[in-house]
Amino acid sequence: MTTSDATGMESRELQEQFDAIIARNDRIEPRDWMPEGYRKTLVRQVAQHAHSEIIGMQPEGNWITRAPSLRRKAILLAKVQDEAGHGLYLYSACETLGASRGELTQKLLDGTQKYSSIFNYPTLSYADVGTIGWLVDGAAICNQVPLCRTSFGPYGRAMIRICKEESFHQRQGYELLMTMMRGTDEQRAMVQESVDRFWWPALMMFGPPDAESPNTAQSMAWGIKRNTNDDLRQRFVDMTVPQAEALGVTLPDPDLRWNDERGAHDFGQPDWDDFMQVVKGNGPCNAQRIAHRRKAHDDGAWVREAATAFAARTSEVAG
Amino acid sequence: MSEREWPLYEVFVRGKRGLNHVHVGSLHAADDDMAVRHARDVYTRRNEGVSIWVVRSDAITASSPDEKDPLFAPSGDKVYRHPTFYTIPDDVPHM
């Protein structure tokens, strides 16, 4: 890390240089000087994002062995593998900020760092695989497209890769739901029931309303966030309504209607008390998700040890 | 946890023949061979590359990050190295 001693610059001058880079919409790169708060905010945000990808493998992984055809199984496997890949891109970006991988893994396992609450809801039917692709990945894309322009270079570059791949995730989900909607009444009912369960949690993915999001202003000033939570939520609703119509499902919000004056949809608020309960660890699957992650980590310990021992021995023999 | 962390590698991918290898990110691996395999799985799931380089991150020597670094000063004041420095009449062809 660069310190004021190393460059012979005063911290005020470093701060000015940092501010100038942000002001001209340029990117901060890992070895640049940055305010401690900027670094901390990014580590927290990127780590949470990475953990979400890793935990996000579980709800859909639940259906891999029960996918209804080989085609659907191959698609689902590829998608879950992508989530692992996205987690790795993001851990890699987070490590450029000085966080270590072991430390990040530990913080996920012991709960000191969070992941997105959306993954604490169960996947009760196969339609959920489609709904997650359509609504959950759709909301993620809405969040992530502006993050491609985030001020920290490695995070933005990871987001560009991720967004390209998320498009496949959303489309496979929507196509799955379209197929079910062309099926039997029972299948259509499954889709509607699934959409009813995931609609509000999907809206919660954008975070609390702006008035209750104290860090948003600072994150936007630093160019980490490019839009407020409410802006992105509105954008998501406006994008999703015509998709729901085309699909033939009803979004479960009695207040949802087009507002001609605003040129946007009015819609109801999710149950934020419920949201806080899930964030605090009391959602339907919090304990199960972490227990599963811990077990996978522990079960893999011998593989990591064996690979380390093998690498040590080969380098001895070669050396 | 007393496990030692696997070393960090930087990954470079050649998108197709005729292009340079470009840095795409980093990953952890126990050794060089594993780093190439992991790089394939993490960074080329959709035909993004025809060739991969990996190198231990601690083997890279880099210039100072500061863009005002004196290292780059020698090229800063030599406008005559650029073709636009020279005025040629418009009617001179192929120049």
From TrEMBL, chain A:
GO molecular function list: phenylacetyl-CoA 1,2-epoxidase activity
Matching InterPro entries: Aromatic_CoA_ox/epox, Ferritin-like, Ferritin-like_SF, PaaA, PaaA_PaaC
Gene Ontology annotations of biological process type: phenylacetate catabolic process
Gene Ontology CC annotations of this record: cytosol
Top-rank taxon: Bacteria
Pfam families given in the database record: PaaA_PaaC (PF05138)
SUPFAM superfamilies for this protein: Ferritin-like
Protein name: 1,2-phenylacetyl-CoA epoxidase subunit A
Species of provenance: Nocardioides iriomotensis
UniProtKB/TrEMBL annotation, chain B:
Alphabetized InterPro entries for the sequence: PaaB, PaaB_sf
Top-rank taxon: Bacteria
A Pfam entry, by short name: PaaB
Gene3D superfamilies: Phenylacetic acid degradation B (3.10.20.520)
NCBIfam families xref list: PA_CoA_Oxy2
Listed name of the protein: 1,2-phenylacetyl-CoA epoxidase subunit B
Protein's organism: Nocardioides iriomotensis
